[in-house]
Amino acid sequence: MHVLALPTVLIFGFVMALIVGMAAQRLLGIRLGAVRLLLAGIFALIVGPFIMIGILGPFAPPPDDPDPQIDFDGTTFWFFLLSLVCIVLASMAFIVVIEAFAPLGSIPPARVWGRGLRARFKRARRYWQIVGIAVRHGLGPYIRGGRRRALAVPSGRAQLGRALTATLNRGGVTFVKMGQIMATRRDMLPSEIVAELASLQDDAEPVPWPEVEAVLRHELGAPATEIFADIDPTPLAAASVGQVHVARLHSGDEVVVKVQRPGIRPVVERDLDIAARLATRLESGTDWARGMGLSTLADGLAAAIREELDYRVEADNIVAVAEAHPAGTGVRLPRVHAQLTTERVLVMERLRGTPLNAAGPEIERLGLSRADIARSLLSVLFHQIIDAGVFHADPHGGNVLLLDDGRLGLLDFGSVGRLDGSLREALQRLLLGVDSGDPLAVSDALLELVPRPDEIDEQRLERDLGRFLARHVSGAGTPSARMFGDLFRIVADHGLSIPPEVAAVFRTLATAEGTLSTVAPGFNLITETRALASDYMAEQLGPEQLKQSATDELARLVPVLRRLPRRVERIANAAEHGRLGVNVRLLADERDRAVITGLLHETLVAFIAATTGIMAVILLGLGGGPAVTTDIGLHELIGYNLLVISAILALRVLVRIFRRS
């Protein structure tokens, strides 16, 4: 019997703790996890004996009583029930305290603690390693929130850019990739920092061929020798995320095989998590990070890098751009072999040529016009942006080839921009307004491109845009891509935020300027873009195009126009006979009704809790009434019960408030 006593007591205690916890959960009107449920029940079992002694003490027999038993008459049983309710009340109070300091979901489940403990140690070690690298390369004062005055001048921002570039370069794969993407974010970063970040190089040691072959076997389901008629084990190029090998299919087509580095995804995910934490820490503690919107920037960079880790995204991007690619432009895109493309392997047609940033001798050998090459590339990008809304968003010199036949080829579609029809129309109006030097038209188009705030000084915006146009478009100076930086500053000064899709357009044009100025020194991107925009708008406003647009609009309006007379007649008849009315459905959305119902419910519960509490205090203050025990009257007993009810209702409201916050 003694052997079974301890297990019996434990089982009984567990069952009682579970019952009390479930009762507290039900009275609070919330759902608890198993751990919190048991903790609440265990707390109630610990304090329960003390509560019962305090309430049932007056009914206990004297110490010298030879038969020490409590007489359970009606009054005693009522106080016994009151003690049980108070025990549940204590459990509810314990739950409310837990929800106030550690809301549900803020602490990972116990199974996650054990499973992720090792990963947490690794992440913490890597976190402090990155912080140490940042401090050694001069970012320490910026992390602490200092150097505010230095950041107000270009030399100070350039110094921050150098320190940031050195830190990212030593941080490894993910941070180098983030730095390269940051170097394209002229819409969010000062030009001095962008210029320093542009020096980051994404070179890496090649992965040994056996490891690459293992990835190919895993992804394609067969040895590389079976999939390809021939494949070169020596990579054509090696970067931090993947490397490229030249191969030939059994059909005889020459292809390039892009293979992701083994084990790179866990490393990148860990570093992205660290980068997000660092961005949040810096944004909460420093003005410069808050001004750049560092957390938003880090989230955008993380999304871009995760897309690069899935080669199927790049394959879809190539297909999307190819479908929208204007014909007869002299610019080629590689053909994707979809049946051989997976998350970590991309097989596409090989385009033979020389990167445009190193194609000077080849241009001379072929006798090509540098200006014609630059115009051809710019024309393709312009029509991809304005006509199709799907465009190559990273046209730097390494991603554009001068092919052996004199045409151009576009590579690396990991970054592709997309614009919907309304954004393209607003962008067209913006270009038309810039070309005509009309600040009012530019202001209207700009406010269609960006999310419009509740309050904006449109007159001041028009004046600022007028000065902007006078400086970059109508003035004597030569317009350049630096005008994008001035436009971004105007947008920021007026509390506007450029959507990522539109920012990608400006980044693309700014990147293209660097490429075009390399291949054709003196080539002015802004002037040429204005010429393209003028030609495009002239085409769109030509007689045939206007006639077609009017025909399309009329075709869409015909069904509405046919129904309009009947509807006008019905409205007129209703008004004539006094039957015209307007039906307005308030709170038609069920989510709105749920919010209002919840607020009314909580307000009513809080009112009842306050009312019962006041009644309890009044009754306890009055005392008197029929005697229930030698010390307690009926009024006091009712007051105590009302006080318990008030406490239960108040705790129910509090736990919902803490859980929402």
UniProtKB/TrEMBL annotation:
TM spans (from-to): 6-25, 37-57, 77-102, 603-625, 637-655
Domain ABC1 atypical kinase-like: 200-439
InterPro entries given in the database record: ABC1_dom (IPR004147), Kinase-like_dom_sf (IPR011009), UbiB_kinase (IPR050154)
Keywords: Kinase, Membrane, Transferase, Transmembrane, Transmembrane helix
Superkingdom of the organism of origin: Bacteria
An annotated Gene Ontology molecular function: kinase activity
Database matches in Pfam families: ABC1 (PF03109)
Sequence similarity: Belongs to the protein kinase superfamily. ADCK protein kinase family.
Protein name, UniProt field: AarF/ABC1/UbiB kinase family protein
